[in-house]
Design a protein that fits this description.
5 helices; 154 residues; mainly alpha; single chain
């Protein structure tokens, strides 16, 4: 399989978009780990415009690269073992060393988000009406492909 330089540039663009998107999350009123006191309204429009397709783009690029790596590897078992090592070791390091623990509780930060949104994923009355727990705009979920600007209260 020959190298496809267009896919290389698409991957560069997808990851640049990913970095810019997460930087912009600091300046919108949606739920995110780090927030600025300076909310910029103009940042919402480009973020909403990319919400429907940015993750799909990353998965398409990843699938193409994985197929190319699988063809070059010595077999599916070796490919799977290599991928697990390259992905799970940094993940374990990040969970154990980098992710901060909440000193006042025995649960992880993710548990607090699930408790605030309730079992159905909808925001409970005690939670902020803008918080969906996934870092998405109000009215959407992390798996949602449509964009809604209204917050549904249960």
């Amino acid at each position: 399989m020959t190298r496809h330089y267009g896919m290389d540039w698409l991957r560069i663009g997808a990851f640049a978009l990913l970095i810019l998107y997460h930087i912009a999350m600091v300046f919108v009123p949606w739920n995110f780990h780090v927030k600025s006191t300076h909310v910029e309204d103009w940042v919402r429009l480009p973020m909403l415009a990319t919400n429907a397709w940015r993750l799909t783009l990353l998965f398409v690029v990843s699938g193409y690269a994985s197929r190319a790596l699988l063809r070059r590897s010595s077999g599916p078992v070796r490919f799977f073992a290599t991928r697990c090592y390259r992905l799970l070791v940094p993940l374990a390091f990040g969970i154990l060393v980098i992710v901060p623990r909440n000193p006042g509780s025995n649960s992880s930060p993710g548990m607090a988000m699930r408790a605030a949104t309730g079992p159905s994923g909808r925001t409970t009355p005690s939670a902020s009406p803008r918080s969906t727990g996934c870092g998405c705009p109000p009215g959407t979920t992390s798996g949602s492909s449509s964009i809604s600007l209204s917050t549904r209260r249960s």
